[in-house]
Write a structure and sequence with these properties.
elongated, about 200 residues, alpha+beta, 3-stranded antiparallel β-sheet, two-stranded antiparallel ribbon, DNA Binding (I), subunit A, 2 domains
Length: about 200
Amino acid sequence: MLNAHYLALRIISVRRALSLLFKRLADERPAAEIIHVEGGKYVSYDFADWAELSTFRAQFELERYDWIRTVRSPIAAPKIIRVLSYSRMPRHQIKFNRRNLFARDENTCQYCGRKFHTKDLSLDHVIPRSRGGSNTWENIVCACLRCNVHKGGRTPDEAHMHLVRRPAKPARHPMLHVKLSDTRYASWKHFVNAAYWDVELT
């Protein structure tokens, strides 16, 4: 989602994006619009025009989009929306949660270096909580079940294990790395980079 000045604010769900597109202000102007990349240029659409265009794309460009099934016809899920009534600069905040930790470490065990399905990974305190280790970006890493059991309540040095990389708070939202690796979300790159460089530091 972008603000009125085309600066990236946050990642939102398709459901939230659609609710913003339908929302109306007091003067009956739309609260948001869809931004789409066409021929290297950014073009804006209101919801009605986007729905009409989706009918054509469903016939010829089906694999390029995620689709929302409706009673009348499928609608291409918008990748970028711009909120017309919001102009504040985005705050660069990243939630400290399990999803973002897994995304930061790319579902890779930080001890053996192998990639696993989420269900086969756990979170490990580099410095165990029993030793005063904290719940911070710098002290929690993804670990496969085998490595986590082997390490137990020891430090990596005590367990003769080495971290693949030193854990740190991500410079930008970890899920962006996952999304930007998918060609369907390539249109995000320009706006994400702009938000990274232009956001006010506090």
